[in-house]
Amino acid sequence: MSDGSSNRIVRCCHCRGMMRVAARALSVFCPHCQKRVTLESLRIVGAHPGKTLATCGDILIEQTSQLNIEISANNVIVSGRVRGSVSANESIEVTPTGQVFGDVKAATIVVQEGGVIQGKCQITPLAPIQQSESETPPEIEVNLEPSSREDRLDSPEPKPSFSAPPRVKQPFRPQLEVIRPIELDD
Fold first, then answer.
1. In this structure, is residue 143 part of a structural domain?
2. pLDDT of 12
3. pLDDT for 113-125, tens place per residue?
4. Domains held by the chain: number
5. Which value, to the nearest 10 degrees, does the dihedral of the CA atoms of residues 72, 86, 99, 45 take?
6. Considering only CA atoms, which of 33, 171, 60 is closest in space to residue 13?
7. Is 105 within the bounds of a domain?
């Protein structure tokens, strides 16, 4: 019917519940909180109407943006000005031109030199995304014991042998969709 590669696991931006969605889906209803969840990554270049901006994707707030809303996403990069709370499932990064006037909540909060946060900062632990058995990383096997007592006396200190390379966290690089301000004719 469908193979495992056509699905992905996301965390709801409203209730933080885990769900499996189609890889090409743009939005779904969360089975936990019954709310509509947007899955797209967004790039904000101006103002945004409304009180909240929530997505299971990533949000990039450009330097020209001045927002008065609450923001919730997987990862958030702030280069403009935000008045309101910002929460992220993974990370919030405030660049040198970024300003946040409100509370921030994420597993990782990075403020570059010149960036501003005026409000409470809360670091929340990130529960790992559950993986299927076919997606689990290989276990690391360590062998520290020599075979006999004589080997221990004659050989230098035993070194561990690993069956899997160490994992390196890649830098956050969102795929973005542009949201442009709407100009109304008078």
1. no
2. 84
3. 999 999 999 998 8
4. 1
5. 10
6. 33
7. yes
**In 3-state terms, what secondary structure has residue 173?**
coil
Domain extent, residue 83, equals 39-129+172-179
9 within a domain of the structure (yes/no): no
Q: Which pair of structure tokens corresponds to residue 11?
A: 């965390």
110 occurs within a structural domain: yes
- Which amino acid is residue 161, in one-letter code? S
Q: How far is CA 127 from CA 58, 82, 90, 147, in A?
A: 18, 27, 10, 40
CB of 64 within 8 A of CB of 81?
A: no
Residues 6 or more apart whose Cβ sits within 8 Å of residue 73:
13, 42, 53, 54, 55, 56, 57, 58, 59, 88, 89
What is the distance between the alpha carbons of residues 175 and 79, in angstroms, rounded to a whole number? 16
Q: Is the dihedral of CA 30, 103, 70, 38 positive or negative?
A: negative
Query: What are the tokens at 95?
Result: 């660049």
CA distance linking residue 16 with residue 35, whole number of Å = 12
pLDDT tens digit sequence for 46-68: 888 888 899 988 999 999 999 99
Amino acid at 49: P
Taking each continuous run of H as one helix and of E as one strand, the counts in the chain are 1, 17
